Amino acid sequence: MGVRVHLRTSMLLLMLALMLLLAGGAAIPTRVRASGDAQAQAQAQAAVQASPRVIVEHAGLSVQLTEGAIVYDGVVAIPLRLLAEALGGTVQWIDATREAVFTAYRTVAIFSVAAGKVTVNGATHQLSSGVVLRDGRLVVALADLDHLGLGYSVEPDASVIKVFRKRVTVSVSADTLHGRPRMVISGDRELNYTAFTLKAPDRVVVDVYDAVIAGDVAPIAVGVGGVSRVRAAMNRPGVVRVVADLDGPAGYSVTTIEADAEGKARVEVLFNSRVTGIGLDEASAISRLLVAASSPIEPTLSEDPESDVTIVEIGHADLEANMAGVELVGRSITLVRAQQSAQAGATGATGVRLQVSREPGTKPILRSLNEDGSVWAVDFAHQIVASSIWEEPGSIV
């Protein structure tokens, strides 16, 4: 009950301030104890604008609408089309049904003038003041912004109204998945974010917009696969920044897990395996290339029969810094070159490519040498191109 009284009081104070501003009279004082409070009247200042400015905060940006708020019949409202555009969306008017379709960031809201209702993503709500057209424009009351998943705040002097997407509360964790470091950002609903890298020092950064962080988040020590720690904090109002501090450049992939039945969603950043060793096994009976990694990998082979070159591709993997450009020479393996390669279709993802030049007549055989798939061998065996059987006295050859 105390919360409802507080919200009702705040709205009454806002209305009083806006009426004073629109009337060209005094601005609302910082504190009002009674309608005839002499101290409040003494604190009042002359209004400097006809209506409060409206600022929309979205995706880390603040956009001021070209028109201010509108007050009518005790209702404070803002133009719907300008609101949609500030959120990166649109409003379409359907004259035949006298409906307006508001679309912005996965929200589709149909405002029905006749019914005085709004249907948001399939759910219908009664509007507090119906659907109102002012000077040929559709306006939405502040009290109805909640139906669009929006909230608002008012400056103490009622000069500015800030509109924002309701803040999603996020939490951060870190673990390993199949031996690879993983950073998980969880929210109580869908997450709007961008992921990018920073240098000097190397970091992977995820900015989550229209969000607040759940409590104090202490840095999380990782110490696996080139990720030293994960940390999170408010970068600026409405933006939570999650950072993975790295030992060096690292590839990664980002997966968005959509909201479940309870409305909870998450973003997972999975870091690449590290290729920690590439070598030739000279003690083997046949020429053998060995590849070791910090976690399970899945190499694949391709061949160019015209040039006797075998390509070993290792997806979602990074070369250790001291292995970039390494070259090896062996018996049937005449040259091995290792390089980092980009992979299309995944944010920040990279792979490792091994180019192996081999003697004519040899074929590669790929196999894992341990149970977790972190060590692999490529054997280059001579092909049997023909065979024949003949008899000798006392034997068959």
Would you kindly provide a written description of the structure presented here, covering whatever features stand out?
Strands 5-6-7-8-9 form a five-stranded antiparallel beta sheet, with helices on one face. The chain has helices at residues 2-22, 38-43, 80-86; strands at 53-58, 61-64, 70-72, 75-79, 90-94, 99-104, 107-112, 117-120, 123-126, 132-134, 137-141, 150-154, 160-165, 168-177, 180-187, 192-198, 203-209, 211-213, 220-224, 227-236, 239-246, 252-257, 265-271, 273-280, 287-293, 299-304, 309-314, 317-319, 327-328, 333-342, 350-358, 362-368, 375-382, 391-392, 395-396. It is 9% helix and 51% strand. With 397 residues, it is mostly beta strands. A hairpin with a 2-residue loop joins strand 20 and strand 21 (239-246).
Number of contiguous helices:
3
Net shape: elongated
Average predicted confidence as pLDDT:
82
Class derived from helix and strand content? mainly beta
Helical fraction equals under 10%
First-residue to last-residue Cα separation:
99 Å
Q: Main sheet?
A: 5 strands, antiparallel
Number of strands: 35
> Which range does the strand content fall in?
over 45%
Return residue spans where pLDDT drops below 50 for at least 5 consecutive residues: 1-10, 20-50
Radius of gyration: 33 Å
Give the strand line-up of the largest sheet.
Answer: 5-6-7-8-9
